[in-house]
Amino acid sequence: MPDSLSIAPDAIPDTLGRAAALLQARYGAAEAPAARTWNEVLDTLLAHRSVRAFLPDALPDGTLGLLVAAAQSAASSSNLQAWSVVAVADPARKARLAAIAGNQKHINQVPLFLVWLADIDRLADIGRLENVEVEGTAYLELLVVGIVDAALAAQNAVAVAESLGLGAVYVGAIRNNVEAVAAELGLPPRVLPVFGLSVGHPDPAVTTGIKPRLAQSAVLHQEIYSKHGRGEAVARYNATLNEFQRAQGLPVEDWSRKVAERVATPAALAGRHKLRQALHALEFELR
Q: How far apart, in whole angstroms, are the C-alpha atoms of residue 211 and residue 50?
């Protein structure tokens, strides 16, 4: 067995069996890569599933601090740390945010709802503190940095939450009306709500499987980008996901059809087609 396998020798057969099972769940048996090395980090990441049904139980003391510590351990472009997060526990505020985000019931269920922000205002404030005239914050690049930083930070937090036995689900519908979210959270100008995150104890009565993803051949390009075999890969993925849907008792529908419908019209974006105007309202100049 490989030396890098971070498990006790007597657990290797069972662990590699679990690794193979997780990889097959993620890709389908025909597309799964071989598991030649394994450790707890891989196990946590590949076992990820979105949780949308939660118990009302409070989180253990100190959980929020650990999630933020993990988030702050993510990479940050030029160490600008251009993100913030608002932790929401108040039931009334969660209910108002849920209404903005399409009435997703898990936002009300969880003890903790996190709203992740691209925070350019703090960078501008630091310039003022240092008596430096700051012009760079008016450019699109800094907003991109803030969005990327927030996404990296949040994914670290999700991985840690799952390693602690908690569940989580991202809520992109926070962008349905970023101006309303900004008003609810008292955000200053040049702070963008990027997405929400519900965190809590998964309801054991509601089980969900590991949703398959596109085969690696569809997303991994060697040396140069290539569209070769894309249609075939999508067709195979439709079949794999259909099998998952049947096993989970879900409506059977092709992924490619859902994707096409999701990007077909502005109305399908559920309010997010107005994001550019909202950014201007939040005083992003976007030069």
A: 9
Report residue 115: phi and psi, to 5°.
-110, 115
Nearest CA to 113 out of 45, 213, 207, 184 is that of 184
User: Measuring CA to CA, how many Å separate 168 from each of 19, 133, 210?
Assistant: 22, 41, 14
Residue 5 near residue 38 (C-beta atoms within 8 A): yes
Beta bridge partners, 171, equal 196
CB-based contact 191:120 (threshold 8 Å) = yes
Q: Give the residues across from 249 on adjacent strands.
A: none
Residue range 28-60, pLDDT digits in tens: 988 999 888 888 999 999 999 999 999 999 999
| Global confidence as pTM | 0.90
195 Cβ contact partners less than 8 Å away, ≥ 6 residues apart: 115, 116, 150, 151, 154, 170, 171, 172, 174, 175
> Which H or E run contains 43?
helix 40-46
**CA–CA separation, 84 and 69 (whole Å):** 12
- Those residues with Cβ within 8 angstroms of residue 125's Cβ, 6 or more apart along the chain or in another chain: none
Residue 47, sorted as left (phi over 0), alpha (psi -120 to 50) or beta, turns out to be alpha
Model pLDDT for residues 233-287, shown as the tens digit of each residue: 999 999 999 999 999 999 999 999 999 999 998 988 888 998 889 989 999 899 9
